[in-house]
């Protein structure tokens, strides 16, 4: 079979170093093109039944792409369209997507494709669910960051957002190792601490993002610690030194003299006379593994943005979120309807 390599320029900024992107399409004997993952076992029922199509791009980083895809699944179910992803989508490497892959460009490019986008990134736009029966292919070009787009397709989205292969194995190994080290039945709370890019990159600050204060994490940790007698907090962050120096000591204070399990990583639980709160930093160089490790926890504390959002949504337990995520009057402030972005039942905290 011949191969057609598709560029990775759009997502190289977040993929881990030395990772294989696997963005390859294969030419079949009859001259058609299929994606390398087309024959995956979970895709056995995926067939091209023809137009109309709903095409999904790869806007932004991991959490943004997950939102766009999930929203497309929900909208396609409502409007009787078939979801199509581009062969460059990094999601294909990690998740059991049931979408078609547009290797030959016949579905998602050309004059018969109409681009669509919501009015505001983080506010539900009912116009996006309009059927538009005369349009062969719609192409979602923006972020679609509202749970309302896929509320009726939640089970399907969860199935497709399941990891496979090396990604699934790495996440399972991390969780298994942690549970063995922690011993017994322990409630795991994933904590996402976004800090570095907001501090370093002007456009994130100009857009309106705020860094949650240390006190927010302390209050969220205390909230869960008061409800679970045996609990461990697993921290994922883009700046390990920040968590090491400022957040982990807060766990030590919350546990009130119990064993501190995190800074050195060498504490022995067998020698501890009190088993209360324990804290570990689990950040790796792979954002997908980090997100799915957080999502494998029982509950989640998120900071700001979509990375922590998806960890919380996939985890399915209690989710605490920072309720002052944006600077007043900023772009994000004006673009976000809080009840459209945060699902009902999630817990706001300052």
From TrEMBL:
It is an enzyme of class 2 (transferase). The keyword Glycoprotein applies. GO terms for cellular component: Golgi cisterna membrane. Pfam families: Glyco_transf_11. It is a single-pass type II membrane protein. Pathway: Protein modification; protein glycosylation. Its main location: Golgi. It is found in: Golgi apparatus, Golgi stack membrane. GO terms for molecular function: galactoside 2-alpha-L-fucosyltransferase activity. One of its GO terms (biological process) is carbohydrate metabolic process. The keyword Hydrolase does not apply. Keywords: Glycoprotein, Glycosyltransferase, Golgi apparatus, Signal-anchor, Transferase, Transmembrane. It comes from the Eukaryota. Its EC number is 2.4.1.-. Belongs to the glycosyltransferase 11 family. PANTHER family: GALACTOSIDE 2-L-FUCOSYLTRANSFERASE (PTHR11927), L-FUCOSYLTRANSFERASE (PTHR11927:SF9). This is L-Fucosyltransferase. It comes from Pomacea canaliculata.
